[in-house]
Amino acid sequence: KGLHNFTATTGNAFKLALYDSEATLSKSTTQWTVASTPSADPTNTYEVTTTGSGYTSGGNSLTSTTPVLSGDTACCLFASTSWGSTASFTARGCLIYNSTNSNKAVCTINFGADKTVTTGTFTIEFPAQTAGNAIIQIA
Hints:
Elements: E1 14-19, E2 60-62, E3 64-70, E4 73-78, E5 81-98, E6 104-124, E7 136-138
Antiparallel strand pairs: 1-2, 1-5, 3-4, 4-7, 5-6
């Protein structure tokens, strides 16, 4: 379990925050934080709150299932999460973080291209809970 406990009923609480293309999310991102200027926290200052509507800083809470073994790999899964029917913003990536444990980063995800929603619903769907597919795999 280490720093992050993904167990569904007794584990930590996790959230997903969205970022635009100006964000610098990488393996060096250690936690979610709010900063008023880029110089205060250059890795976490460009959440989509600065570029659109229908998104609240900090993102959405995630619902996890207990990790399962797929071969010799523990695989995590979160339920899909979405932002309202009137959302209007562009996101380039996201940060999954542990809101129970000082907002420590779990992983950063680059969508590969900007994803835009205009007066609609923006949904994140997670892949299957199997080795080679799961968004979080521990081997």
